[in-house]
């Protein structure tokens, strides 16, 4: 194996009723391994089956521990089940680690593999299978030329090959989901951004709704801090007619607002956050813009103790906004009122 090559387990997908699961491993060489486990492929392997079903229960429930079996145990077993084959594929690839990774490397990997896990007499036997497709939803929105022309009128587009990825640890490169990125503006100056990949679990309409909200905020020219603290769109990542995600001005985040964070903060700081949130929402409403999913999880506290409003994709969260008030000004008032109550306790 190349001395600087690494791989890790990054995502999984399970079903409520079916007993199979899908996993994704990534390597620092830019490879992606789509792995599938179907216990019907376990022959005379009761021990393997029992261990797998314990892992499946952890993945389904999100619990950290069930009957003295921990999530770390599940991740370790799943990883080790595929590790020998993945290690072999890395060693034989002839590839080197990517020195300057970009979104192009992450979103469009140069090499992918489909792997299934077999077991015979309780011996694990992962194998590469030859079939097209991997069953994972691709977070890409295809748009027509009219949409792109309209998009270019209010924001910039960046090719994924021009978006550099920043990792704190080299061993995480092209494995961890990209967050901090660097693009170069029209003056050739580096700009640090947060990359938000389109999540299509709710369909493309959710992503387009957030784009529409950011368009309104951009065209209305939201006042900069300290007047408002609202996430700012820098541009959109696209490849031809495929939209891949959004680039937001980087917020040096300390934490997400929460009841615990509010409870341990002095009253003067909580009043500051309350004022910043209310001022930002007031400006949005004056411009006819709905925040949407108003809740503490969508408020970031930065290193300078400022409260930033983020996430304009709509939807609602039970306990903060009623379903019939979702994505309305009234829903915003309801959610912000509950945030105010939390900060005043």
UniProtKB/TrEMBL annotation:
<feature type="domain" description="Protein kinase">
    <location>
        <begin position="126"/>
        <end position="345"/>
    </location>
</feature>
<dbReference type="InterPro" id="IPR000719">
    <property type="entry name" value="Prot_kinase_dom"/>
</dbReference>
<dbReference type="Pfam" id="PF00069">
    <property type="entry name" value="Pkinase"/>
</dbReference>
<dbReference type="InterPro" id="IPR011009">
    <property type="entry name" value="Kinase-like_dom_sf"/>
</dbReference>
<dbReference type="GO" id="GO:0004672">
    <property type="term" value="F:protein kinase activity"/>
</dbReference>
<protein>
    <recommendedName>
        <fullName>Protein kinase domain-containing protein</fullName>
    </recommendedName>
</protein>
<dbReference type="GO" id="GO:0005524">
    <property type="term" value="F:ATP binding"/>
</dbReference>
């Amino acid at each position: 194996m190349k001395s600087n090559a690494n791989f890790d387990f990054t995502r999984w997908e399970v079903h409520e009723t079916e007993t199979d699961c899908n996993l994704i491993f990534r390597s620092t060489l830019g490879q992606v391994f789509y792995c599938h486990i179907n216990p019907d492929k376990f022959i005379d392997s009761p021990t393997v089956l029992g261990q797998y079903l314990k892992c499946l229960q952890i993945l389904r429930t999100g619990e950290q521990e069930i009957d003295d079996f921990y999530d770390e145990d599940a991740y370790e077993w799943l990883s080790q089940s595929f590790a020998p084959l993945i290690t072999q594929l890395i060693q034989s690839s002839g590839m080197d680690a990517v020195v300057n990774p970009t979104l192009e490397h992450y979103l469009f990997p140069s090499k992918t593999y489909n792997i299934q896990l077999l077991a015979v007499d309780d011996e694990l036997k992962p194998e590469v299978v030859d079939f097209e497709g991997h069953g994972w939803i691709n977070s890409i929105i295809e748009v027509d030329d009219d949409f792109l022309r309209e998009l270019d009128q209010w924001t910039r587009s960046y090719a994924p090959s021009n978006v550099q990825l920043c990792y704190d640890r080299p061993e995480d490169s092209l494995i961890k989901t990209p967050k901090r990125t660097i693009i170069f503006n029209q003056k050739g100056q580096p700009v640090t951004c947060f990359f938000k990949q389109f999540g299509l679990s709710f369909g493309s309409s959710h992503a387009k709704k957030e784009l529409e909200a950011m368009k309104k905020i951009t065209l209305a020219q939201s006042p900069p801090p300290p007047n408002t603290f609202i996430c700012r769109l820098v541009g959109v990542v696209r490849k031809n007619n495929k939209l891949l995600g959004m680039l937001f001005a980087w917020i040096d985040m300390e934490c997400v607002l929460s009841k615990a964070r509010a409870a341990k903060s002095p009253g003067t700081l909580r009043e500051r956050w309350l004022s910043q949130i209310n001022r930002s929402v007031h400006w949005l409403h004056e411009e006819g813009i709905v925040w949407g999913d108003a809740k503490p999880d969508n408020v970031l506290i930065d290193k300078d103790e400022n409260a930033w409003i983020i996430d304009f994709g709509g939807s609602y969260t039970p306990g903060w906004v009623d379903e019939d008030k979702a994505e309305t000004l009234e829903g915003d008032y309801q959610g912000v009122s509950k945030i105010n109550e939390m900060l005043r306790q």
